[in-house]
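Sample log: Short/branched chain specific acyl-CoA dehydrogenase, mitochondrial.
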Amino acid sequence: MASLIRALRPLCRTAPSFRMATRRPLPNHWTPSTHAFSTTSRRRDVDLSNLTPTPITLLSETESMMADTVSKFAQEQIGPKVRDMDEAEVMDPAVVEHLFEQGLMGIEVPEEYGGAGMNFTSAIVAIEELARVDPSVSVLVDVHNTLVNTAILRYGDAQARRTWLPKLATGTVGSFCLSEPASGSDAFALQTKAEKLADGYRLNGSKMWITNAMESSVFIVFANLNPSQGYKGITAFIVEKGTPGFSIAKKEKKLGIRASSTCVLNFDDVVIPKSSLLGEEGQGYKYAISVLNEGRIGIAAQMTGLALGAWENAASYVWNDRRQFGQLIGNFQGMQHQLAQAYTEIAAARALVYNAARKKEAGQDFVQDAAMAKLYASQVAGRVSGSAVEWMGGMGFVREGIAEKMFRDSKIGAIYEGTSNIQLQTIAKLLQKQYTN
């Protein structure tokens, strides 16, 4: 398959930001009746006041082509390997290689650094389409794009961008290392320490629940350079795999997204040069929170894609194969109502996801929108994937298809990049601020 990005780049350069397109349907591919309108990541430079309002999920021609192409790629190149990767709990290296070949690991990275130079919504579209086939692959792409690439692109200096972005866009997987054994939702409790040296820094501590760790060669690590200052001492560093003292201590065995690696990392007197500092000293906590707010939209997209994949798989079975009492069970009114309810909830979740993405692109405050999208999308993913197992009966319960896998994979949506309770707290605080006299 020819590179996705090579095919879309000319269109990215020439298409107006609000050019509309009709998306070509693919076999077994859900095609929404509406698409969203941006192809540029620089929404802050656009005067939105005179634009005609459009449906939230209306995609530009570029974004629509991205969705169709990623869907086809996922079905053909990833789909046949999903069950084997889940059983082995290992990401097939060939899949990772294909992701780079297709340009999906540098979607927002500017072309000058070897990336696609596309907008944020294009990344969200890709994450959603991948999750319809395998949420494990989707989260690898999501974390790499929305956390790692974004952090370096936004907070790295010119040298850091020149050094790391070409690698991350073309062949090197990245990890975002914030969580620790006693510091998950409470990032203030971070214990990994950094010591300033004459010509660099020394890191000591450990990280836990680090996504992509087995595949990664570049790690963004958050450590406290000045513990007496609390969270104001937290600083971000870039650490390469193979640095003396840095090791992967344990790979976790998980309930879901089992092909996605999740590991414990140890830092034992890890000495790194001054150039490994990401941004400014003491600004790491601000960087992490800012990037995670965007990342939550990516996780929400992963969950809507998962829900849709589970729904499509089950709907196809009950409307074409499973019979009881002399007819397809999808013809029973009770089943039809459940399918309709689930699809409606998926559509509502997608509206929240795309609204948050568009607000982010427009330079508007999207923190509450991102929290609502992640909260609701993860709830919908759990409900729909669980119902899908029941709709399929015994075939949903066995490990022959993807139904039970999607159900297991859905649980992580309520946990990583901010638990559901954290999202509720964020939403409540912002609402309280708005409604308090």
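Observation: The longest helix spans residues 284-320.
Observation: Residues 175-284 form a domain with the Butyryl-CoA Dehydrogenase, subunit A; domain 2 fold (CATH 2.40.110.10).
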